[in-house]
Amino acid sequence: MTVSSTIPFHLRGNYAPVTDEISAENLEVRGSLPSELNGRYFRNGANPITGESAHWFLGDGMIHGVRLRDGKAEWYRNRWVQTPFYEDPAKPVIDLENLDFSSKNSKANTHVVQHAGRILCLEEGHVPWEISKEMETLGPCSFDGRLDGSFTAHPKICPLTGEMLAFGYGLRPPYLTFYCVSPEGKLVQQQDIEIPAPVMMHDFNVTAQRVVFMDLPVVFDLDVALAGGMPFSFRRDNGARLGVMNRSDTARDLQWLDIDPCYVFHPVNSYDNGGSVIIDVARYPSMWEAGSGQFTTTAQLWRWEIDTALGQVSETQLDDRPIEFARVTDSR
Predict the structure, then answer these.
(1) Is 322 buried (19+), middle (13-18) or exposed (0-12) by CB count in 10 A?
(2) Which of 199, 203, 133, 214 has its CA nearest to residue 166?
(3) Cis, bond preceding 174 (omega within 30 deg of 0)
(4) Which residues contact residue 7 at a Cβ distance below 8 angstroms, ignoring those fewer than 6 apart?
(5) How many degrees, rounded to 5, is the angle at CA 241 between CA 260 and CA 211?
(6) SS3 call for 180
(7) Which sign does the torsion angle of CA 19, 152, 211, 308 carry?
(8) Rounded-to-integer distance, Cα 15 and Cα 43, Å
(9) Whole-structure pTM value
(10) Cα-flanking dihedrals φ and ψ of residue 38, to 5°?
(11) Which of 76, 225, 240, 260 is the 20 to 30 Å CA partner of 19?
(12) What is the b/e burial string over 256-272, where b = at least 16 CB atoms within 10 angstroms of the residue's CB?
């Protein structure tokens, strides 16, 4: 057995943690940059401060950024998001005594988005953390105190209305909450949605007319949590279903439709097609059946065609090649 084989994959090779924060200015450019390409490119990812983490998803958030202006690459820098874990890496991520996520204990390690003048670093268990354009940590964003719970790492910003639509899941009933943040950055809608179990709902789907939630059988597992691992396991008997809601309706009007058990971290695209909804996803046949640290299955491109009038979902595999992190332009 080699030394590398005993080190978890997320702590070695290209996944190995970056140990230093650096700043570099006036970067060398090979070729040329369009003078019209001006702005900042930020990337977020899990990067454990201590060099160790129990799971790929539990590292501390680190932002990498490049500033482009007038055909020049002015700077590169990387910064940890200075959440409470920056000062105290041993803090618990989940309050197991109360079966709840602590709202300000975010790792802020999954995604970064800009909306209503804010730059938000996101992970799905806690409130967002805000940073400046210069990548300084500003602190937790509770939308003027209205948000006190989890907020997805994958909100959707509507190109038509400017609204940011999001959700949060929790470990206590009702387990799911839907949010709408106005174009001005105000949390204007917050609806609790009752679902049967505390599932890991990583992402969701938004079209011009509808929101579609994915209630899939990766379920909170207290035994795994107490053992210190990623606290979810695949429970096929929990079933799988899609929840369809018109954006103008309330949670009372949700329509739930059963599908074959599977798991989806990330949808590819979703859109309305007359009375139907088309959703393309990176679909796994299962997830973490061999343990929450084991990524032993791969995702393929599947399509769900939802007929809301008939209450049916047609499930079709579109390709057999592995796929993940596919996306369409944010303007659609």
Answers:
(1) exposed
(2) 203
(3) yes
(4) none
(5) 135
(6) strand
(7) positive
(8) 14
(9) 0.93
(10) -120, 135
(11) 225
(12) ebebebbbbbebbebbe
Six token digits for residue 279: 């959703």
Which residues share a beta bridge with 240? 259
Q: Tokens standing for 31? A: 């070729």
**Token pair of 223, please?**
């035994």
* Residue 53: CB atoms within 10 Å: 21
Mean pLDDT by 10 residues, the chain (332 residues): 71 93 97 97 96 88 98 98 90 65 79 98 95 98 93 97 97 94 97 96 97 97 75 93 93 94 97 96 91 82 97 98 92 78
Give the separation between CA 137 and CA 304, rounded to whole angstroms: 40
How many angstroms separate the CA atoms of 36 and 246, rounded? 39
Query: What's the pLDDT score for residue 2?
Result: 53
91: its two tokens: 């803090």
Distance CA 73, CA 26 (A): 6
Q: How far is CA 167 from the centre of its chain?
A: 10
Contact yes or no for 219/236 (Cβ under 8 A): no
Q: Return the exposure string of 151-165: e unless at least 16 CB atoms fall within 10 Å of the residue's CB, then b.
A: bbbbbbbeeeeebbb
31 C-beta neighbours (distance < 10 Å), count: 4
What are the contacts of 231-240 at 24+ separation with CB within 8 A? 231/94, 231/292, 232/200, 232/288, 232/292, 233/288, 233/289, 233/291, 233/292, 234/263, 234/286, 234/287, 234/288, 234/289, 235/197, 236/261, 236/286, 238/196, 238/197, 238/199, 240/214, 240/215, 240/216
Structure tokens at 111: 């995604």
The tokens describing 278, both together, are 């088309």
Q: How far apart are CA 218 and CA 236, in angstroms?
A: 8
Question: Three-state SS for 263?
Answer: strand
CA–CA–CA angle 178, 181, 186 (5° rounding): 130
Q: What is the pLDDT of residue 280?
A: 98
Would you state the pLDDT for residue 149?
Answer: 86
Please report, as a single letter, which amino acid is at residue 121: C
Cα four-point dihedral sign 29, 30, 35, 36: negative
Nearest to 226 by CA among 51, 95, 91: 95
Quick one: tokens of 9? 């994959």
